[in-house]
Design a protein that fits this description.
Multidrug-efflux Transporter Regulator, Chain: A, Domain 2; three-stranded antiparallel sheet; 5 helices; DNA-binding transcription factor activity; flat; mainly alpha; about 120 residues; single chain; DNA-bd_dom_put_sf
Length: about 120
């Protein structure tokens, strides 16, 4: 069974060991221990990757925890429907942000073109 030290995960994901301990403190990771040494399993590594990806996509730690809890429990229709609601809400927010970004990018491109035209005169 493949295991990892906290320093190995920190290096791989380019984060601090303090961040990893924080994710453990808030219940997102659950390494085993050998004395005071944390031993991370493949599951912890995958969860850490998902936490970091979720944060990058704008999920709060509470939302990430809720998704993990829904996934970890018996996946009844109720849990899966709740997970779908969370995913749909996040997709709607991200789509709106993407639309806003595209509008701003178009406006910036137009402003840049106006500046270039003014310089040429």
């Amino acid at each position: 069974m493949e295991t990892f030290k906290i320093s190995e995960l920190a290096k791989e994901f380019d984060i601090t060991t303090r961040s990893i301990r924080f994710y453990e403190d808030v219940g997102l990771l659950a390494p085993t221990r050998n004395g005071t040494t944390r031993i991370y399993q493949r599951r912890d590594k995958i969860r850490l990757k998902l936490v970091l990806r979720g944060k990058r996509l704008g999920f709060s730690l509470a939302e990430i925890r809720e998704l993990f809890e829904l996934y970890d429990t018996d996946q009844s229709d109720t849990q899966l429907n709740q997970m779908l609601l969370i995913i749909d809400e996040k997709q709607a927010v991200l789509q709106q942000q993407l639309n806003d970004i595209n509008i701003v990018m178009s406006e910036l491109t137009a402003a840049r073109q106006r500046c270039l035209q003014a310089i040429k005169k």
